[in-house]
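Incident log, structure service

09:12 report received: a user says their structure output differs between two submissions of the same chain.
09:20 pulled the input from the user's history:
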Amino acid sequence: MIDQEIELSLVITIVNRGYAELVVDASREVGAKGGTIIYARGTGVKDVEKFMNISIQPEKEVVLTLVRKEEVKNVIHEILAAAGLKTKAAGISFTLPVTDFVGISSQIDSEDFKITETDA
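09:34 re-ran on a clean worker, output below:
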């Protein structure tokens, strides 16, 4: 069993299709190891052509980036600069706390983990 001694957050960024790599590159600049890109389609676009004076495109990419909690502000800042609402990417980002995880220890420094044996 792995005792998770670090706190992680999931940064979720939604951008117009074709701009996900900007998000991944920006987050890597400040220490993230990478991300997962998911293709998506926005809904409700027929009802709302503009939101806050920004054109809405239905084709989207969602970038999931797992980072240490203390890195979140730097990652969000870099993403905003590279792919925020005022860019062609028209990106939005938000975070969620990660309480449990498995299978990612190879991407996080081994000193962040304490391995313990249990008789489960």
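09:41 both user submissions now match this output. Likely a transient worker issue. Closing.
09:42 reviewer note: Strands lie at 2-4, 8-16, 36-41, 50-51, 54-55, 59-68, 92-98, 113-115. DSSP finds two helices and eight strands in the chain.
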